[in-house]
Amino acid sequence: MAKAIIIGSGLGGLATALRLKHKGYQVTVFEQNHYAGGKLHAIKQDGYRFDLGPSLFTLPHLVDELHDLFPAIDNSFSYIKKDVGCHYFWEDGTRFKAYTDQKDFVNHASKLFREPKSTIDSYLTNSKSRYNLTKSLFLEKSLHKWSTYFSLDTLKAIVNAPFLGLLNTLDEENKVFKNPKLTQLFNRYATYNGSSPYQTPGIMSMIPHLEMGIGTYYPQHGMHSISQSLYELATKVGVEFRFRESVDKINYNNNLATSITTALKTYKADIIVSNMDIYPTYKKLLTQYPAPKKTLEQERSSSALIFYWGIDREFPELDLHNILFSNDYPTEFDYIFNKKSLSNDPTIYINITSKETKTDAPAGCENWFVMINAPGNYGQNWEEMINTARKNIILKINKCLGTDISQHIATEYILDPCDIEKKTSSYRGALYGAASNNKFAAFLRHPNFNKGLKNLYHVGGSVHPGGGIPLCLLSAQITADLIQDAS
Predict the structure, then answer these.
(1) Rounded distance between C-alpha atoms, residue 173 and residue 158, angstroms
(2) How far apart are CA 332 and CA 341, in angstroms?
(3) pTM for this one?
(4) Cα–Cα–Cα angle for 45, 301, 48, rounded to 5 degrees
(5) What is the C-alpha to C-alpha distance for residues 17 and 231, in angstroms, rounded to an integer?
(6) CB 414 within 8 A of CB 308
(7) What tens digit of pLDDT does each residue of 454-479 get?
(8) Taking Cα atoms as reference points, which of 271, 219, 259 lies closest to residue 16?
């Protein structure tokens, strides 16, 4: 039986392992940690459970498709659709509940922000059109194969290119709204791929369609259940996992990848797939092979500073997803991408899974995932930055919620860009690989195959089509489609 090796058990690695198993390969996954899931992990502390990684779940059918590959295996993975995508807060007391139904969103937003319904409805309709026009080209196929460009879907995208917002930034596209709060609300979608709304192209205005067109979901038992359901499925169908066994080298001969070497031994394979960040893949595993310099020098996406707080009371005004906006959004992104630092007035995201899964916190309490966007690890004084950020976060929460949150923090765990880099091998702690701060970013990402080494493939957030749960799963689909069935 043909053998396939997957380096890394992040979401892209798990999905690729399942797809290659379905193609008839004998699959072995090598993982440096003692658990599967990569960034999609969880911890328990003092009676609270916290999801450590991604907290937003969209396009759930991409997970269902993997379970459907093996219909004989019981599927315990389930989820619910949310009626409200996010609760938004501003310091001046403005609060907005973003419904996932387009009509409800338009009606509520028009009334609160005094914006014409037609303007908001047109924006969301265009978001849907842009998504449908470009998903086949940018999300479902390799951008690095000529065959991708000889299709009807690609022709439609090219014909409509002038209307896709490629020449404007997302912020410029969102200036269609007169109310700056509504512009800020839609600008935040740039952070879904770790970019700045003042630099990323306007085509990113298609992202709101994921929430308000297709829907926002919550997995029963939390986000961690996504990776764990795939890991459990993989073990049931015979995928082998070798935990705490880091890969030290990818071996090749005559431009053909042949095996990998760990501290224990060398393992031969017919197919090798790296789910490791593309930067350390070349810098650590392919040290003798010429690296794609321009690809590795691309600007990295933002990272995150996350405080996991066990809160000893409940806040009924909060929901699963909550945003407390900065008063100066441009300065916040200037600090992240130009100064490689944190502004004193950061936008705060609070995720509370105990709103849905009551057992994630003790009775009468809540588990808060409190995150701000952060620069990657460039050797800053993180201890000082974390201490300052904590004070600023508490100050803003107090202003927006009218409380003293510091009196209610029963337990705390902190995750910073250095931790993210160390635990997930993500270069500089970037959450999404390369940033999308220019119009050609999608084409500059590393392809899902290796142009120089046959039988070596790449998957995950640092390669095409990008980071985040849906894109990592689509990355696995693209990669697997490039690999022939085992003979």
Answers:
(1) 19
(2) 9
(3) 0.94
(4) 10
(5) 10
(6) yes
(7) 999 999 999 988 889 999 999 999 99
(8) 271
